[in-house]
Amino acid sequence: GTKWGKVREIxxxxxxxxxxxxxxxxxxxxxxxxxxxxxxxxxxxxxxxMLLSYVDNLPTxxxxxxxxxxxxxxxxFRVLRVLLGGKEGRVAKxxxxxxxxxxxxxxxxxxxxxxxxxxxxxxxxxxxxxxFRIPEGRQRELGFTFSFPVxxxxxxxxxxxxxxxxxxxxxxxxxxxxxxxxxxMERQGLNMRVTALVNDTVGTLAGxxxxxxxxxxxxxxxxxxxxxxxxxxxxxxxxxxxxxxxxDMVINMEWGNFKSSLLPITEYDEALxxxxxxxxxxxxxxxxxGMYLGEIVRRILLRMAQESSLFGEVxxxxxxxxxxxxxxxxxxxxxxxSPDLKIVANKLKDILGIHSTSLKTRRLIVSICDIVAKRGxxxxxxxxxxxxxxxxxxxxxxxxxxxVVAMDGGLYEHYSIFxxxxxxxxxxxxxxxxxxxxxxxxxxxGSGVGAALLAASHSQYL
Length: 462
Ligand code: ADP
Ligand code: MG
Known about the structure:
The longest helix is centred in the last third of the chain and has 32 residues, at about 360-390. The protein has about 450 residues and is α/β, with parallel strands linked by helices. The chain has helices spanning about 5-15, 20-40, 85-90, 110-125, 175-185, 200-210, 265-275, 285-290, 295-310, 325-335, 340-350, 360-390, 410-415, 415-430, 430-435, 445-455, and strands at about 50, 65-70, 75-85, 90-100, 140-145, 150-155, 155-160, 190-200, 215-220, 225-230, 250, 405-410, 440. Helices cover about 40% and strands about 20% of the residues. The model has no long low-confidence stretch (mean pLDDT about 95). A hairpin with a 2-residue loop joins strand 6 (about 150-155) and strand 7. It binds adenosine-5'-diphosphate and magnesium ion. The site of magnesium ion has 5 residues, from loops.
């Protein structure tokens, strides 16, 4: 039978190792702020790359015309076009299409991936209606949202530093991804110019600012996690170029690569990291983001199955398959409010082939989801708090300044226990009064529109 004593022992251990008391979160936030300073001081000075985006002006609302955007960053990519009508017209019209990336292209050759993307883009352009017509003799312009670490050389060029989130295509690393995309578009016979290359965090920041003037920070919590914010250019020692007129520079933190001995890491996290495509890297991301949360839960369950026959004498075969338990499944189980936890039972059956579980077992599974999700949400809150500290927005100012964090990503959007926990934790860290001046705003798919807006404000025809 089940050795519940052993199960409890493992659970207690996991609980203890995953604990994130407020005092610890404050230390994590301070460590984040310290790393931010170090990353701004010199290239390679920190685990945080603190990448210059070359975006020194965010959208004003005056943007006008038809622009395209392409958003590549996870399991899907999206192509969209917007008709911008200035202060009055705003985003007058918007169309998009979402295409999922065949898994083999995430591990193949660079040309294959970019050809696939350019072909989808070309098909999308074919469906352009009259209201989106480009004036005679003009080239279509595109904002390219590319959500991997890029060393930007200008607003419209940048070389790939490394892949993350399950992509691994060696021949792209070190290449200018704008050149790669442009060549692929040419192979498709598509006449389009990339006028802005932006990270999704930077796109979200731009889209967020267009909607709300108080947006200073953008955070992504989706397949992966990252953040960007508006820094004063004279607070970036590693920037040796001319100071931009605005005095500002958007920084793509690449915070997913944050690492600190203060992070609560378990043996399950260590094993996950060791067996990942990028061992030793993206440690913060592996604790927080949608690609990994379900996988951590699977690893804990597997251990319980192996050491205490949680699911019977034989370890369920499917439970041994990496990444079979995805975060949306975890979230569905975690939110199960039926008295007998029917959804948990069904997920176990459908995904893991585990039949007839006791209510006690289902409850145990929900509590494991709770531990893993809340650790992630609380660590994400600590990261945001760290940015607010760096910006001096963690205290009250007079006159009272409002600070808005534009948030995007399927994890935050759909996993409500996660997002509620994040919000509550951030409020705890800020304290009631300051918490009243900080808002997290869901900027649903703002990164694509944001990239189109940046393409518009940097159009070759201005
Ligand atoms: P991406 O990050 O790939 O650009 P999204 O922002 O749409 O795309 O995020 C997708 C990710 O969000 C998924 O990989 C998954 O981890 C997470 N996610 C999607 N739906 C849910 C859900 N219902 N519950 C929890 N997480 C979800
Ligand atoms: Mg995305």
